[in-house]
Every structure is written in C-alpha cells, then in structure tokens.
Amino acid sequence: HGERGPMGAGPALRRFTWEEIGERSGRGPRPQERWLVIERKVYDISHFCRRHPGGSRVISHYAGQDATDPFIAFHLDKALVRKYMSPLLIGELAPDQPSFEPSKNKKLVEDFRELRATVEKMGLLNPNRTFFILCLFHILVLDVAAWLTIWYFGASTVPFLCSAVLLGIVQAQAGWLQHDFGHLSVFSKSKWNHWVHKFVIGHLKGAPASWWNHLHFQHHAKPNCFRKDPDVNMHPLFFALGKTLSVELGVQKKKFMPYNHQHKYFFIIGPPALVPLYFQWYIFYFVVQRKQWVDLAWMMSFYIRFFLTYLPLLGVKGILGLHLLVREGTFLKQHLNVTVFFSQLQATCNVHQSLFNDWFSGHLNFQIEHHLFPTMPRHNYWKVAPLVKSLCAKHGIEYQCKPLLTAFADIVHSLKDSGELWLDAYLHK
C-alpha cells in the first residue's frame, strides 16, 4: 500500500520496476493484467481498456510499455484526459528506473521528444482552416460537376465515364479529408472534429466513422506489426508479406494462395476486388453488429442522395453500374495506400513532394512525418520534414523518399521477392 507521504499528503505512490510492468502486458504469467506507463506514472488499464474511446485494442497494444509518446501524439485535450486517468493510477516508476523501457534507445527518445517540443513552439500543430475549407469546396464542386456532366450531355458512354472519373476523384479526396478530421487535425476541440468526420466519411463516402477509427487507430498504434496492425491482415490469407513472415509461412508448409505468383494476382484480387466486395458488405455489417446507428444514418444519407440525383438520369441498371464503377474507380487511392504500405514493410518511406503528389495522396506522401505527428495538419508536413531528416541522420536511420512511379513499381518487386522467399522455404526448409 506504500508509505505515508508528507503530513496531509496521503499515502505515497507505490513504486514499480520495468520488470514488474512488463509482466502486465496481457500475456505471459499475468494474462488478465494490463499496466502501462505515462510520464513515469503507472496506470492499471485492465478493465478500462474496454471503455477506452479509441478502442480497447489500441490502448492494450501498449500494455507493459511506456505509452508517453503515443499519449501525447493522439490526444488533443490532455488535461481533460488526465482527469479520466486519475482513478487508474496505481503508482510510479522507482527512482532508479529509466523513464522508458531499458531496451529503447535513450538518446533517440530524448531527441524525438525535443523535436516534438520544437514542433509545438513553431506552431506546426496549428491548422490553417482556409486550407481545409478549400479542400471541402473542391470536393463539392467536383461532385456537382459529375452530376451536371450526365444531366447536360446525356447518359451516353463518354459522359457516363467522365462522370464516373469525377465521382472517383470525389471519393478519393473525401477519403483524405475524412482522414484529417479523423486525426483531429482541423479543430481544437475533439468533438468538432468527430462531428465533421461523420459528415465527410458518412455523407460524402457512405462509410462509418466508427469503422475507420477502429481500424486506423490500431494501425497508428503499432504500424506494420503482425496481429496488431489491421493493414497487415492480408497476410497470410491472400499474400505473404515481408521477408520474415514469408519465410515462416514456408517453413510451416502453409499455402493459402500460390504466393510465388502474388505479384501477378495482386492486380486481380487486390483493390479492384476487395474494395467493392469486402468494403461494401463489411461496413454495413460493422455498424449493425456494433449498433452504430448514427453512423448508419449518415451512410444512408449518402445512398439516398446518390440514388435520388442519378436515378432519373440513368435508371436502375445505370445507377448500379455507376456506383460499382465509382467504387472500382477509387482503386487508384487504394493502390497508393498499398504502395506506401508495402514499402513500409521493408522500411518506412515517403513519396517525393510535388503539387500533384500532395493532392493525389492527401499529403500522405509524407508518410514518415504523419506517423510521427498524427494530429499535425497535413499542410505542415513539408515544414517539419527537414527536422525529421536531421534527426534520422543524427541517429543513422535511413530516411527514404521515392518517386511515385518507383513506389508503385516497388509493390511488384516486394510481392515477387516475398513470394520467392516463401516458395524457397516451402520447398526446401
């Protein structure tokens, strides 16, 4: 129970070692217990993790670890969050214990925290709301232009395809904009970001905000960690990803697909198939199963608007074809996501900056900066990039940046290499 503190101060906090905290990771000898550390304070999240607003998996991924940096990175109103943390406080690190796990690079962590303080002083976490207003405006203009194209020129092949292209761009750009609000990058109040996020992803894209939050926050908590990052869930059912995992699959004699040909079938069963089939079905299942009725209402507003505006112009068959084509048309956005993702399996990398690349990727060509500062408004990534490069150079960390087409080509090379490693291990090990 700890010793008594100074007179009137109540009992002193219990003191723990990293060995004790590491045993409370949700695995190992104490699977029911989950502790984590924030700013040297130890918190018991064993029961709270189920009520965590960002999802139980996100916070549980940090059990047994120091979570100071992700806590600072993901929360806007830290004073408010700390009020909810008070009942979870069970102690603090003993004075002889380092502020984070002994296995971490002390100097690198300290330098990164110094960089974060510099970023805050420079105002790089402050959004330019005019930028985001213009982003929304150009999406709405393109949306209207898509409808006017068919209304004015008719439903023949060329206007139909032009409208589909415009709507595909709308879907992709709305995807980047909802990403901004989902990361709380636009408004100073979390709830304002959440409200607009529901509108953009629900009414403009027909998808649920709760589904995106559930998956994307896990991705940011543990990028590219197998069984923790949902973006890696394509392994091993469809693809063998990464050198180590591919060899492990081969050694275990597992073959769900002919992985040595995955660089070919990716373009068949990858985004073109998974987007319209999996995405369309699963998002409705998700909101109903989790009773996210507000998200469902926003999603339905998208479909009602889409069918009411295009049904008189195209008829039932035409509108279904347009909808499927638009969902397929977003494969460019999906291919870019996968491009960056596969590149990250080898080493996190950026794509070269240009006006087109910035627009086409929603500034996620600055993948490194975005993962270091997830709440930073995207229009500031280029400003912090030189500071991040300097930090990497100081610690001998490779800072990769590739041309867009090179990044696309790396998908094929990465898949081919992983497939060959799997085949070799499958046949000979």
TrEMBL record:
Q: Which Pfam families match?
A: Cyt-b5, FA_desaturase
Please state the pathway this protein functions in, per its UniProt record.
Answer: Lipid metabolism; polyunsaturated fatty acid biosynthesis
What does the record give under GO molecular function? oxidoreductase activity, acting on paired donors, with oxidation of a pair of donors resulting in the reduction of molecular oxygen to two molecules of water
Q: Does the keyword Acetylation apply?
A: no
Q: What InterPro entries is this protein classified in?
A: Cyt_B5-like_heme/steroid-bd, Cyt_B5-like_heme/steroid_sf, FA_desaturase_dom, Fatty_acid_desaturase
Q: Which UniProt keywords apply?
A: Fatty acid biosynthesis, Fatty acid metabolism, Lipid biosynthesis, Lipid metabolism, Membrane, Transmembrane, Transmembrane helix
Can you tell which superkingdom this protein's organism belongs to? Eukaryota
Please give the start and end residues of each transmembrane region.
131-152, 265-287, 307-326
One cellular component term from this protein's GO annotations in UniProt? membrane
> What's a GO biological-process term for it?
unsaturated fatty acid biosynthetic process
CDD domains with a match to the protein in the record = Delta6-FADS-like
Residue ranges of domain Cytochrome b5 heme-binding in the record: 13-94
Q: What is this protein called?
A: Cytochrome b5 heme-binding domain-containing protein
Q: Name its species.
A: Strix occidentalis caurina
